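Handout, tutorial session.
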Amino acid sequence: MKFKTLLLTGLTCLSITACTSAPKIPQLQAGVLQEVTDLEVYPDTQNNKAKLTKLNNNCVIEFTGFMQGGKVVEQWTFSGNSLISGGSAVFAKDGTSTATKFDLYDQDKQANFMALKNHFHKDALNQCQ
């Protein structure tokens, strides 16, 4: 009986040690082609970044930045030079949030998308054709 208890205790200690000393597996962001930071954009944001991701036959640009009022996230889906969808969400410091779907035919929105798209390297964008 003492042998079983001792054996069970030993195995338990080994399994706990194995779990806590196992190497951490890095998280991969599948499909990310490029990420750029500290972009000069309008409206002015701090600690901003944009990520270009390949998803199936389309690409997505996700822009994240911080303004005085809170965090803003924009997503643009496109293929080649064709803009498929776009929208934004604003997460205010007071806990409220708003979401907006962009009018893709609005020239200001198209110019904003092209300005953001131009921050990425041509080799990364070529994978979005």
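The second record follows below. Compare its token runs with those of the first.
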Amino acid sequence: MMKQIQHFIGETDPYLFDLKHLTIKESTMEYTVPSDSCLVFSDFYKITQIASSLGSLALAKTMDVTEKTYFLGEKLRIRKIDNRSLDKGLKYCARSIEYSSRKGKSLVDILDEHNQLAYTFELDYFIFSEDSFYRLFKNYAITHHEPSTRTSLTVEKVEIEEIESSFFRIVIQPFSKEDCAGHFNQYPIVAAVFVVKQLLCAIEQFFEVKGIGLEQKKLNVDSLEMFLNVAVPIDTVLHSKIYYHQIAKESYVFVCPVCDDTTEYGNYLITVNYSFL
């Protein structure tokens, strides 16, 4: 059953997580990350990536899909419940809501290694049949696809161009077809979570450039919200004029519109704090 659903949602290895850690229940799906999997600050995108894919699988199961169906994120929100350091042994529990054949939502509770709620996650989807997805994204399509041997995202370092009193500018180097392997393979669209990784790398550099030493501090993502307008194509240089504001002694909010020279692809709202080690 799961192999069929995996095939129908258009996500495969290396983008999709290992299904051997997946558990299917009557009304939920659960995925557990091995307890030795530790994450650094910029790897927070992996939590969002797992929750998004699990949400797609759960929604596909709810809809009882029997043919290729594409789930494209529209709005995403993930919030951290408390200030504990949470970087390993997470368990994901997803349920989904089918609003119509073209709209749906997934809700994911993310639990810590003590089975306590660590994050809440929700994602609204646009849902496409294979024909409608092709009509909309035919310019993204490739005629020949070879399996990727990539095991992790290896894009270039983000460039910070300037820092002013309320904003800084960054350049995100293009994502390649290989970077996006497994995410709609015939249509290599950049996953929004990959953009999140680069934004987090830029935020980490921001703290370093501002002289906020991180040697004795740990950065944490308190919340992330994404509002997506247009799918990001591969081989495209992205820019962001990131607005920032210190909202508490140890907490900042970053508003990140992401665009190229002609198109705004989406807006990302990230709240970050730091705790002392």
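Points raised in discussion: The longest strand covers residues 117-129.
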